[in-house]
Amino acid sequence: MTAFPDSPFGAMERLTLDPAPLAVIRHEGIRIADLRDAFDTGYGAIAAYFHDGTLVPAGPAVAIYYGDPMGVFDLELGFPVATAPTDPLITASGASVQASTLPSGAAAATTHIGSYDGLGRAWMGLAEKAGAKGLHHRGIWIEVYVSDPTEDPEELRTDLILPVA
């Protein structure tokens, strides 16, 4: 099963993630309070490279959290792309768009429909279901923003993917 399905995931589905090329802006040592600014500037800056043809999108926006998302963590914001950039691309704001890869291997996934405010509860539910099946998260949390953020907040679709061991 792909990390980018057309249909929503169920309550908890197991899948094997294949590595996929990404174009991302990396943020190291940030907190939840920093997310709005990172998201507001990051996705638009990368999308500018879609408009000029430098990058070709291959899926919806992603955010990959490394570490404890309730504390200090590292973050990659970006998109799956046909081919990752070979050299960093410098945005108008001075940020660096770099090549990365979607983490691969075993994962548990679910879909959250609704406001981003409900993502914390959805993550807790997925982690609990995975734990009940004997799956242990690897400290990586992937959000796939399937819906355009300008849609009605109650209609937003966010796929949550938890790499597991």
Automatic annotation (TrEMBL):
InterPro entries: AraC_E-bd, GyrI-like, Reg_factor_effector_dom_sf. SMART domains: AraC_E_bind (SM00871). Residues 10-165 form the AraC effector-binding domain. Pfam families: GyrI-like (PF06445). This is GyrI-like domain-containing protein. It comes from Microbacterium galbinum. The lineage of its organism: Bacteria, Bacillati, Actinomycetota, Actinomycetes, Micrococcales.
